Amino acid sequence: MAGAPAQSRRLPATTPASARGAAPRLPPGLRVGGGLVTLVVLVAAVSLVWLPQDPDAAHFLERLRPPAPAHPLGTDHFGRDLLARMMAGARNALWVGLVAVGIGLSAGVTIGVVAGFAGGLFDRTAMLLLDALYAFPALLLALLLATAWRPGATSSMVAVGIAVVPIFARLARAGVLTAKAQPYVEAARALGAPGRRIVFRHVLPNIMGPIIIQATLAMAAAVLIEAALSYLGLGTQPPTASWGRMLREAQSFMFLSPYPALWPGLGIAVTVLGFNLMGDGLRDWADPRRRGRR
Amino acid sequence: MAPFVAQRLGGAVLTLLLATVLVFSALLLVPGDPAQTILGLEASPDALGALRRTLGLDRPPVRRYVEWLGRVARADLGTSIRYGRPVGELIRARLGVTLPLVILSMLAAGLIGTLLGAIAARHEGRPLDLGVSGFALTGLVLPSFWVGLMLILFFSAQMRWLPSGGFPGWGDPRAALVHLTLPVVTLALARAALMTRIVRGSLLDVLHEDYIRTARAKGVAERGVVYGHALRNAAIPVVTVLGLEFAQLLTAGVVVESVFALPGLGSLVLTGIEARDYTLVQGVVLVLAAMIVGLNLLTDLAYGLLDPRIASR
Questions:
Q1: C-alpha distance from A263 to closest chain B C-alpha (Å)
Q2: Phi, psi of A68 (to 5 degrees)
Q3: Which of B29, B165, B188, B220 could disulfide-link B261, Cβ–Cβ 3.0 to 4.6 Å?
Q4: Where are the domains of chain B?
Q5: pLDDT the model gives residue A2
């Protein structure tokens, strides 16, 4: 008898973890992606306060060295330490990605929210123009801006930012249209809450989930496009270390030493994979219908 | 169907108009005097004046846009400042490299993606599926320019099987195709990876349909079920994605051309940017945008034909 109450308190093994009081298991993709992103963010954060060597200091006697204790990832054609440059490159990739996504997110969400609330001609015109902009690839925008402003990180960040505006605007508009019909927004309206308060207190917090997921996926795209632009010489300019630029410089010397071309590619791949897995994982996690589906 | 075609045509025209506005506005974003920026600080006032007139800087922007649009409509993209030749002529010469590169890559991506996607779907959940899915994920996250460099390192430097870059022209088609092999593989890899995922997903959906169960019940071999029945019906989303992938291939082609030193539109536009040849950059970007809009329109219309429910919506 003594064991009976304990037995009855134990729920069957098939009960979902959440019902047993434990947090639901994170999808493997989210865990792996989150881990990779955390690694890149940590490397970038450490590079702000500590670098093994000056990433721009040339040592001509130590050119194109393979990995060794003094230079764990080797050196490039100027004898610069590749570990230090990779760390500084991580900082640059995240910074450029964050600014680009920040531009796209703030402009896109603003347009989407206003269009969703205003409706009518403004909504239709804005969506038509954004659809047209969506068909215009980021790289073409970047080529135009690089010609007008001279190649640099700014033009590539703005180009990528503009290119992702339509995605965020569509998401925000859809969220607003759904939220507008919800009883809590109707109640706020009935209580006389001004439009701005309804947007910031009631609508935005409810549509932020999908927008954050999209921002994670947009980060992956932004890092990849910026690397491509830097590789073409249209993104981050020397002496700032950027993974795309490092690849460009390594190309002429890769028959002598493959390491300067190897690490930046892996850095870009790990970052892009991390953000992609994290975005997909967050989407699966947030959507109960997709949970458990692989 | 007619309203559907009209709607899609209208959308394409609007997108193209927006592209012309974006392309034209690039010149307005140049800080200071574009003529001075192009010719440098030591240019003579006469040369500056002549270039300003050539670029139309002595007229209001809206008038300039309308005039420029009129010329573009007559296929006149202006004269390149760097080369002193018509931009249209320069673009036509380079299309002989860019178009084969993009078309061959699209075919390769479609073939590899369909084959691998079908293999993965047939072996769902088994090691072969996991291997193919792993390849697909890897192909999607690896930057194409890095893949190109690694291929050069292995196939050109190590094995000495294929050239590392350059293009001999179509005078010798065999040599031309050999020079395009590595660029095509590089460009096709990421697209093939995406295609693999789409074909796998689409096939898995189809493989659970009733007619597939019927085919199996009739004793059709699994290979026949997948390749004879399911793949044909799983092709609709694949065709659509292939069309949309064209835009990705064209822009990624700019980067891959740079990796393999191919004299295509990519290298032309990069030369234009370096020389601040606005006319040339505007011309190339506009042609690329027009090709993307045109193919998107064709894809939309094809989708409407393949799936009448889309057109009747």
A1: 10
A2: -155, 165
A3: B165
A4: 96-263
A5: 38
- Residue with more model confidence, A13 or A74: A74
pTM for this entry: 0.85
Residue A269 with chain B: CB contacts under 8 Å = 138, 141-143, 146
Q: How far apart are CA A164 and CA A144, in angstroms?
A: 16
Give the minimum alpha-carbon distance from B218 to chain A in angstroms, rounded to a whole number.
30
Cis before residue A239, ω within 30 degrees of 0? yes
pLDDT(A11) > 50: no
Q: What percent of chain B has pLDDT over 90?
A: 39
> Per-residue pLDDT averaged across B134-139, rounded?
88
What are the tens digits of pLDDT across the range A246-264? 999 999 898 899 999 999 9
Nearest to A190 by CA among A172, A202, A175, A200: A202
SS3 state at A81: strand
* pLDDT tens digits, one per residue of A74-132: 999 999 999 999 999 999 999 999 999 999 999 999 999 999 988 889 998 898 888 88
A144-181: b (≥16 Cβ within 10 Å) or e: bbbbbbbbbbbbbbbbbbbbbbbbbbbbbbebbbebee
Question: Which of B146, B251, B270 comes nearest A140 by C-beta?
Answer: B251
**The token pair that represents B120 in the structure block:** 């993965």
Better-predicted residue by pLDDT, A235 or B40: A235
| Domain B96-263 architecture | Orthogonal Bundle (1.10)
User: In whole numbers, what is the pLDDT of chain B averaged over residues?
Assistant: 87
B79: β partners: B86
* Residues of chain B numbered 103-162 and touching chain A (CB < 8 Å): 137-138, 140-147, 149-150, 152-153, 157
Cβ burial of A125 (10 Å; 0-12, 13-18, 19+) is exposed
Task: Please report the pLDDT score of residue A4 as a whole number.
Answer: 42
Q: What is the mean pLDDT of residues A16-44?
A: 80
> How many angstroms separate the CA atoms of B184 and A131, rounded?
30
In single-letter form, the type of residue at position A266 comes to: L
* pLDDT at residue A5, rounded to an integer: 45
CATH number 1.10.3720.10 is the correct assignment for the domain at A28-43+74-288: yes
Backbone φ and ψ for B116, nearest 5 degrees, come out as -65, -40
Q: What are the beta bridge partners of residue A71?
A: A68
Nearest chain B Cα to A217, which residue? B141
Q: Delimit the domains of chain A by residue range.
A: 28-43+74-288
Residue A234, classed as helix, strand or coil, is coil
- Rounded to whole angstroms, the Cα distance separating B139 from A247 reads 18
